[in-house]
Design a protein that fits this description.
This protein has 14 helices and no strands. By secondary structure, it is an all-alpha fold. It has a domain of 61 residues. The protein starts with a helix and ends in a 25-residue tail after the last helix.
């Protein structure tokens, strides 16, 4: 193939241009944005993929980088993995198969093991924000979140009926929900309106008289003067000795036999005697280590004991339960239920604010008290984090003295892409 001088000159110029461009190439100072799963991007202290997780805290790094796996010491010494130091050492200190923030006990340190699904917004957006395989209320961060209300099974208080969320997840928000507004209780279009006092109206599935009670749930049926109606309602109830001892939830209300008030508080002496012999209500049965009423709760873990009207039982349970500030901060599983201090509901969800103070810096009767506890320079809950450096001060919606960013958002993001 013959080339003329003009073609040759063009090729020479093109080659020179390539050489010049190649000489001016500069290696990017930072990893290419959009991924975080190799050793370089998993060790630069930057949130390269802008997902809120940096380096080994990112699941991409944990799964694919060689820098983020568990390390095994030559002479392992096993101890409970629950302190700040043990939750950042890269070791499975308690030999339970999980290490650092993969361990449930470490996850109790919210400032260290930042969850990403713990607000009403993130717990109702249909997204698995923390990429753990659980979305919204299926995620423990939502279902057990102390500031999350959208995962409740009820919507029946002034606060819940005015927060703009579907707290009981029935598709109805605030005053559209009959729990908030009885006037919107649905009545099938084929239901005859009027007094609920005939056998037909007491079994049609509708609230005929609009009082919020349907069929045998309405006293006008269950306590009717019409014996046919009473007989019908009794056939659905859990009130006879046979029904209270057959192991079946006869009235479909979720409670079986003596676990149902219709049995345990029956007017029938025979039924009452039967239930009293089985219920966990006496001091003897509340201290024998047996789940006498087969409801899944033993002794003082059963409300029938811990909330007993018997002073002797109540006194005994108060000595056993993990429900004081001291017992909720002593590092001991006082009630032997497998949960220590603030990992135990009896501590972190206690109705007594002085007890809950052991688990929550921002606890208070009102927003002003919450603000005070989050700005007093004191580590009120004794977890090593003070005021706005404490997770719950940072995210409590009632706190106004911690404007942000939140402790879980205060990470180094990529300077070329972060617009926040």
């Amino acid at each position: 193939m013959n080339m003329n001088a003009s073609t040759i000159n063009k090729l020479i110029l093109l080659a020179l241009a390539v050489v010049i461009v190649s000489c001016e190439y500069k290696r990017p100072p930072l990893p290419v944005m959009g991924y975080e799963f190799d050793d370089v991007s998993c060790s630069d202290g930057i949130d390269n993929d802008n997902d809120g997780l940096v380096d080994c805290a990112d699941t991409g790094c944990l799964e694919k980088s060689t820098l983020c796996g568990v390390s095994i010491p030559l002479n392992p010494y096993y101890e409970e993995e629950s302190s700040f130091e043990l939750c950042i050492d890269g070791q499975d200190n308690d030999d339970d198969g999980n290490f650092d923030c993969g361990d449930r006990k470490c996850q109790q340190i919210s400032e260290l093991c930042c969850g990403r699904e713990f607000t009403n917004e993130r717990c109702s957006d249909g997204i698995d924000n923390d990429d753990n395989g659980f979305t919204d209320c299926e995620d423990f961060g939502c279902s057990q979140g102390i500031f999350v209300t959208v995962c409740l099974s009820r919507e029946d208080t002034d606060e819940l009926c005015n927060d703009g969320f579907d707290n009981d997840r029935d598709g109805k928000i605030d005053m559209e929900d009959e729990e908030c507004n009885p006037e919107v209780a649905p009545t099938p279009s084929n239901v005859e309106q009027g007094e609920e006092n005939t056998l037909e109206r007491c079994q049609d599935g509708g609230d005929n008289d609009g009082n919020g009670y349907i069929d045998c749930g309405d006293f006008s049926c269950s306590r009717s003067d019409n014996q046919d109606i009473v007989a019908y309602c009794q056939s659905l109830s859990e009130a006879t000795l046979d029904q209270c001892s057959d192991g079946i939830d006869n009235d479909g209300n979720g409670f079986i036999d003596c676990g149902d008030y219709s049995c345990s508080r029956s007017d029938d002496a025979e039924v009452l005697s039967y239930c009293e012999a089985r219920l966990e209500v006496s001091l003897e049965k509340c201290s024998d280590g047996v789940d006498n009423d087969s409801n899944g709760f033993t002794d003082c873990a059963d409300y029938s004991c811990s909330r007993s009207q018997d002073p002797a039982v109540l006194s005994y349970c108060e000595d056993q339960l993990e429900a004081t500030y001291e017992r909720c901060s002593d590092g001991i599983d006082n009630d032997g239920n497998g949960f220590t201090d603030c990992a135990d509901y009896s501590c972190r969800r206690n109705n007594d604010l002085t007890v809950r103070q052991a688990c929550q810096e921002s606890v208070g009767d009102n927003p002003a008290q919450a603000d005070m506890h989050c700005s007093d320079g004191i580590d009120n809950d004794g977890d090593g984090f003070i005021d706005c450096d404490d997770w719950d001060c940072s995210y409590n919606p009632e706190v106004t003295v911690c404007p942000g960013p939140g402790v879980c958002e205060n990470v180094y993001r990529h300077p070329e892409t972060d617009d926040r």
